[in-house]
Amino acid sequence: MQRIVCTMTAALCLAAGAALYCWADKAAEKPSKPARPADCVYVPTPHDVTAKMLELAGVKKTDLVYDPGCGDGRIVITAAKKYGCKGIGFEINPDLVREARQNAKKRQVDHLVEIKQEDIFTLDYSKASVVAMYLLPGMITKLLPRLEQLKPGARIVAHDYFIAGVKADKVVTLTSNEDNVKHTIYSYTVPLKKE
């Protein structure tokens, strides 16, 4: 009888420990208050523009796509869904981090997509093979030293705003079916061609 009680007690302790571990793990995932305010308001890239950006970047299954300032996560989610590649979205706004994670789960690509609450100006970009971004000109200029960490052959696509002082490989303009507005996409290959 004593042996049964000890076995049951041990099992309960293991279960409680596992539950506590899972709870702590989930708590660590919860977005926290940002260390500083966001640099701009969130404006989503239309889905057809997102698709064109990824096409222009020549995304493949073997790529790792970074999206600094990912908002609702649509760029990395679309890349994972369409090409089967991995993607990491970086966002400072905890509400958008939460929404992007939910969107990845809803689109069933949460095994390929990671959404991190990070300051995009402090990241190491060297592991990315594609960087897709929709950022204001001043933000892009501030990010440039980080983008120059990318390995040769890595691709960068920028929506509506170009990288100042860098020659684009291609410039594509399209009118989105979603908002009926003309959008411009700039594509670059590392090493960047300074003008």
Descriptive overview:
With 195 residues, the protein is α/β, with parallel strands linked by helices. The chain folds into two domains: 1-30; 47-194, Vaccinia Virus protein VP39 (Rossmann fold, 3-Layer(aba) Sandwich). 37% of the residues lie in helices and 22% in strands. It contains five helices and nine strands; from the N terminus they run H-H-E-H-E-H-E-E-H-E-E-E-E-E. The strands form two sheets. A seven-stranded mixed sheet has the order 3-2-1-4-5-8-7, covered by helices on one side. Strand 1, helix 3 (74-83) and strand 2 (86-91) form a beta-alpha-beta unit. The longest helix has 28 residues, at 2-29. It is globular, with a radius of gyration of 21 Å. The protein starts with a helix and ends with a strand.
Structural class: alpha/beta
Q: What string gives the helices and strands in order?
A: HHEHEHEEHEEEEE
Give me the CATH fold name of the largest domain.
Rossmann fold
Instruction: Please state the CA-atom Rg, rounded to the nearest Å.
Output: 21 Å
The CATH architecture assignment of the largest domain turns out to be 3-Layer(aba) Sandwich
What is the percent of helical residues?
25-40%
Strand arrangement within the widest β-sheet reads 3-2-1-4-5-8-7
Number of continuous helical runs:
5
CATH class of the largest domain: Alpha Beta
Largest sheet: 7 strands, mixed
Number of domains: 2
Distance between the termini: 82 Å
The counted number of beta strands is 9
CATH superfamily of the largest domain: Vaccinia Virus protein VP39
Low-confidence residue ranges: 1-28
Shape: globular
